[in-house]
Amino acid sequence: MSFEYHEPTSLAEAVALGARFGDDGQFLAGGTDLIIQMHRGKLRPRHVVSLHRVSGLDAIDANGAVHVGALVTHRALERFPAFRGPLRALVEGAEVVGGHQVRNVGTVGGNIVNASPAADVVPVLLTLDASVTCLSPGGERTLRLEDFLIGSGRTARRPDELLTGVRFAGLAPQSATAFLKAGRRRAMEISVVCVAGRLTLDASGERCLEARIALGAVAPRTLRAHEAERFLEHRALTAETLREAAELAVAACQPISDVRASARYRRLLVETLVPRVLARCVERVREQAS
Amino acid sequence: MSKLALTLTINGERHEILTEPHRTLLDVLRADLGLTGTKENCLEAECGVCTVLLDGAAVNACILLAAQCQGRAVLTIEGLARHGDLHPLQRAFIDHGAVQCGYCIPGMILSAQAYLQEHPSPTEDDVRAALAGNLCRCTGYQKIAEAVLAVARDRSARR
Predict the structure, then answer these.
(1) What is the pTM of this model?
(2) Partner A, chain B 124-143, Cβ-Cβ below 8 Å
(3) What ipTM was assigned to the predicted interfaces of this complex?
(4) Contact check, Cβ <8 Å, B65/A31
(5) Sign of CA dihedral A268, A272, A278, A281
């Protein structure tokens, strides 16, 4: 592991360095994925551009639309007061990432760019219809997170681009989110399957107006279960409806068998976790209303 | 490969360090400064034996470049005892028989220290969750949790 180390102090300088090095360079945020990949020899950048002196990327702004800077740590996400209500799934996703040591350092931007299909915060962001902002010397572009994620470890980020943050609209009234993760133990576990959900209900709290379901570790990239979402919209949310939605979500999966679980087991988990996540959303909307 | 000149405050003492950019905080602590209380094992942030506090927050020194610590304060297990007196966590780990082979203990104690600073009255489940990033291969978790809880209780009693 040998490289040249750069410590830009402004965003403009960081982006200029990133563009200069292209595929020979890597941006370093928390390093909780990058340094491990470099130790393993999977990545051998000739230039590492550390972002820790670049200011302005580590803030969360939740006045109206929510903006989460790329350098916001999982710890900061976990503790952000405005995420304790209907956006609680963000906390639930962040707090199961690694141990405290990793959450203190690992960033939301890094988690997105790393594009692990088992990432825990990414499915939650997908249910929030989040978009990401990428900056290059040529300017800024905004992409839907769903389009940004291409495959396992692959994103639409160009080598000259830096992901600067993720943004999503505030939730409509009568909305709630939930996140559940299945692993062999409660902590320090890469998800066998994880499921995030968001529901917006009508004023009576019985019928679904809008549904979002995202699934982790069941395909090369984190997936939205579009058909299940469409099925739920404008329906009364009975146990039977949730079960049918779960079957549609299972149909969207392309899981693999690996050391953590078989493909069949992963499908069973999706079938079980999707109704559980949705029921939790319904419960939360009703709690908030009461 | 050019070297970086870093200034790190380690256990309250300023250190000027000249090192290559690829070296981790763990490399510098163990090899350059001889602070071998911070252990080396998985090198992938899975086991927590390399846990140190960086500006008070628990981090895995094995995947943190020394360069990322420039200008910051690092606390290792060697810096916890004051004037030859063991820190209450160190004392409690001994008193409760929480130390078996000992390899995970520096990391356990530093994770517990960071956690108790922010959560003075934890439950046993809280303590176990707080130490989830530190593996004990002897599986001596019960006595470790008891030792941490005892320190928290003792501190609340004094308040």
Answers:
(1) 0.95
(2) 129-130, 132-135
(3) 0.94
(4) yes
(5) negative
